[in-house]
Design brief:
binds ligand MGD, alpha/beta, 25 helices, 5 domains, N-terminal domain of TfIIb, Dimethylsulfoxide Reductase, domain 2, binds iron/sulfur cluster, binds molybdenum atom
Length: about 750
């Protein structure tokens, strides 16, 4: 290595696996990116997307200065000009139309950015608008609702304790490709292999024989959207065959009798036809789950983004409880994050539970869940006139024009706004509609702590990445930008001293939470600022923290910084009842809202399968809509293909590489055909996040192979009624050859 060569550690911000990487640098140049073998959590794993960190840093299309739209064209602007423009445009809208006229949209990368995650609440408070939307309602809100009702806080999600498990039932998830979701588990492949080597078994339920199914012991096709029937068949069998064993959890659980009564009619024999899995298979799987000492059921996108998303998410954990595997070694366990987890805060063992439906959306009257409305309501809130209409929008690291159903309607709604601000690193399908774009930093220029994913991790740990490269002095960190917008919204002016404002807000917070000790804590946090200071505060007052010197051996940010490959905090430990925050202090196995929703299932018992339905698909070298501009990831075989079974291809007259028209009512897309028996007959699979052929973007690589937009086919009004999550899977379509 030359003199200036150095290695920086960085947690990869691209997906939930949060791999620890080593960035080899010479001056400002990135020479190489490798896995950090010493990383206490990911232990030398990475995937091909890691190289994207270099390409993203160097991407000439990535925005480096603010843009302001003048006479329909974007022009580069200074930060001061951009903030002044926001102030000039936003304040009159708030003054004239009120707080709810300003909506915000948060996208997926927010959960990988500590600055955005920790400072968005300050912007939300300053705006005071009920119109908050995020990618959660295209994703995991059904799981948040079910665990919220059962365990008392939105993110108390049990994850498989894979290193000690002997049986894993994976439903509607493909961790071999996605690298895990709501389950932070780098190197799923290695862990699955180790599991099988010690005699463990993995069974996958999916309408496609996925990469995960390939490394599993068994795979069963399931009719898309029919998981609820399968899961009810499993729960029925547990009672029918007297396999229910709550073990240690019996005294901490209420609602078992209600579940027994509710599932009586859902025999596997009745469910088989509807879900496509034979009754004896359902019974066999229930027995395996119940009789294997260390086992867990895990479900993800396929079980959430469908019309029974909340019921499926709930039943998965009902099974974990009834089989005695919840909160047990080798079962589905609750991580204990070192900072920020609601289930480690305040009084342990009980709490206020979760409350939803405090207000309803203006047009469709849908309830807020966890403080947000379904993102599929955004377009109607903008394009439906009347009091309370959304007139301004702030998008933060989100691309809903591609990621949400019926982007065409949303795109034209965005053009009707009086003002739109995008905090984004690209001029893309969504940010092209903005009046001002504020770019974030390259991930290599910012510090990182995993605020969210430590709450879903297969093992407890704490890691911190300092910035690998210095940022341009003129470029603020994202927490600073978002806080400045908050100050603007409060009428404090765009010129405010942001560090002083941050101090003042923290002082207020501390006075509320720590009372007399607040001045002392404030002093102890010196000289940190911004997001980093929030991390230090949360760590030191968290479950492993030094409690500001009361426990000198406890955790501080300095201790984590001194361990560049992270600190291991041990395997997951049983946490019930301590992790509960329900009002009863019990696991609420049978929340009324979920029991009531079974009426929909009863009414749907005999619905016949449509000729063809469409489902989504994720791919290793792609991440939602925004990594298609990175050459190393974009190259290779064409990926945005419509994958279907040879029998369907033959029946529909489709040929490999030919074009198919896919229709849903009057919506239509054209996609290239790929034929494979890995698909369940009657199901076509297409990735999402493509369709980079819209005008006015600056994505030169992505535009060369734009792909087609799956969401252009989907109906924004189809939702899981309980959670409001969009239905993205199992939608009936007509497929025909394009002649
Ligand atoms: N049909 C179908 N649709 C789906 C899904 C599906 O399975 N099927 N999946 C859904 C899921 S799970 C999700 S999470 C959503 C994702 O939905 P979105 O979050 O709306 O989409 P992304 O493609 O992740 O867009 C991320 C945006 O953040 C920007 N960005 C990236 N890094 C940064 C940064 O550091 N700072 C800032 N300010 N911006 C940044 C990118 O340029 C991009 O505009 O898509 C959903 N849509
Ligand atoms: N490489 C890569 N990794 C990613 C992402 C990415 O875009 N690319 N996105 C990230 C994000 S935002 C998320 S949320 C996670 C998602 O993580 P996962 O949920 O693991 O991701 P998917 O690959 O979408 O897996 C969903 C599976 O559900 C199946 N499926 C579809 N419909 C149904 C159904 O009705 N029932 C059942 N049982 N299965 C069904 C699909 O065939 C697919 O195999 O991945 C994250 N990681
Ligand atoms: S699996 Fe790949 S994209 Fe995900 S965190 Fe690891 S290196 Fe990054
Ligand atoms: Mo997601």
């Amino acid at each position: 290595m030359t003199e200036q060569a150095r290695i920086a550690q960085r947690i990869c911000p691209f997906c939930e696996a949060c791999c620890g990487l080593e960035i080899e640098l010479e001056g400002n140049k990135i020479m190489r990116i490798r896995a950090d073998k010493a990383d206490v959590f990911s232990a030398g794993f990475l995937c091909p997307k890691a190289i994207g960190l270099k390409e993203l840093h160097e991407d000439p299309d990535r925005l480096r200065s603010p843009l302001i739209k003048r006479d329909g064209k974007f022009v580069a602007a200074t930060w001061d000009e951009a903030y002044a423009e926001i102030e000039r445009r936003l304040l009159p809208i708030i003054a004239q139309h009120g707080a709810d006229a300003v909506a915000t949209v948060l996208g997926n990368p927010v959960s990988h950015k500590m600055g955005l995650l920790l400072y968005f609440p300050k912007l939300a408070k300053a705006l005071g608008s009920r119109n908050i939307y995020s990618a959660s309602t295209l994703d995991q809100i059904p799981k948040m609702l079910s665990v919220g009702l059962m365990f008392g806080s939105w993110l108390t999600v049990p994850v498989p304790d894979i290193e000690r498990s002997q049986f894993l039932l994976i439903i509607g998830a493909n961790p071999m490709v996605s690298n895990g979701s709501m389950w932070t588990v780098p190197d799923f492949r290695g862990k699955a292999k180790a599991m099988r080597e010690r005699g463990g078994k993995i069974v996958v339920i999916d309408p496609r024989k996925t990469e995960t199914a390939e490394v599993a012991d068994a795979h069963h096709f399931i009719r898309p959207g029919a998981d609820v029937f399968f899961l009810l068949g499993l729960v029925h069998t547990l009672f029918d065959e007297k396999l229910v064993r709550l073990g240690r959890l019996a005294e901490h659980t209420v609602g078992v009798e209600q579940i027994a009564a509710a599932v009586q009619e859902f025999t596997p024999e009745r469910m088989a036809q509807r879900c496509g899995i034979a009754a004896n298979q359902i019974r066999e799987l229930a027995r395996s789950l119940a009789t294997t000492e260390r086992a867990a059921v895990y479900g993800r996108i396929g079980t959430c983004t469908q019309e029974y998303g909340s019921l499926c998410s709930w039943l998965i954990d009902v099974i974990n409880v009834l089989t005695g595997h919840l909160d047990q070694e080798g079962g589905a366990m609750f991580p204990k994050a070192a900072a920020f987890a609601a289930n480690t805060r305040s009084h342990s063992g009980s709490g206020r539970g979760v409350i939803s439906g405090r207000h309803h959306s203006r047009v469709s009257g849908l309830p807020e869940i966890s403080g947000e409305f379904p993102i599929t309501c955004l377009a109607e809130e903008i394009d439906t006139p009347g009091a309370g209409q959304v007139k301004a929008l702030i998008t933060i690291a989100g691309n809903p024009v591609l990621s949400a159903p019926n982007g065409a309607r949303l795109a034209s709604a965005l053009d009707q706004l009086d003002f739109m601000l995008s905090m984004d690193i690209y001029l893309n399908e969504t940010s092209r509609h903005a009046d001002v774009i504020l770019p974030g930093l390259s991930p290599l220029e910012e510090a990182h702590y995993d605020v969210t994913f430590t709450q879903f991790s297969y093992r407890n740990h704490a890691r911190y990445s300092p910035p690998a490269l210095a940022r341009e002095r003129s470029q603020p960190e994202e927490w600073q930008s978002i806080l400045r917008i908050a100050a603007i919204a409060r009428g404090l002016g765009s010129q405010i001293d942001i560090d002083a404002y941050d101090d003042a807000l923290l002082e207020q917070d501390l006075q509320r939470s720590a009372g007399a000790a607040s001045a002392q804590i404030m002093a102890a946090l010196q000289p940190l600022r911004g997001a980093e200071r929030q991390v230090e505060l949360a760590l030191r007052s968290g479950p492993y923290g030094d409690q500001f010197t009361q426990k000198p051996d406890g955790l501080t940010l300095a201790k984590i910084k001194a361990a560049p490959s992270g600190l291991d905090l041990g395997a997951l430990q049983p946490r019930i009842p301590e992790a509960l925050r329900t009002t009863s202090g019990k696991i609420e196995l049978a929340p009324q809202m979920l029991l009531d929703d079974l009426a929909r299932v009863r009414a749907d018992l005999d619905t016949a399968a449509p000729d063809m339905v469409i489902v989504g698909r994720r791919q290793l070298r792609s991440n939602n809509s925004w990594m298609h501009n990175l050459p190393a990831l974009a190259k290779g075989h064409y990926r945005c293909s419509a994958l279907l079974h040879p029998d369907d291809a033959q029946r529909l007259g489709l040929i490999e590489g030919g074009m198919a028209q896919i229709r849903n009512g009057d919506r239509m897309i054209t996609a290239q055909v790929e034929i494979s028996s890995e698909m369940m007959p009657g199901v076509v699979s297409l990735p999402h996040g493509w369709g980079h052929d819209l005008p006015g973007t600056q994505l030169s690589v992505a535009a060369q192979r734009p792909g087609v937009n799956l969401n252009a086919l989907l109906d924004e009004n189809l939702r899981d009624p309980l959670s409001g999550n969009a239905v993205l899977s199992g939608i009936a379509v007509q497929v025909s050859a394009l002649v």
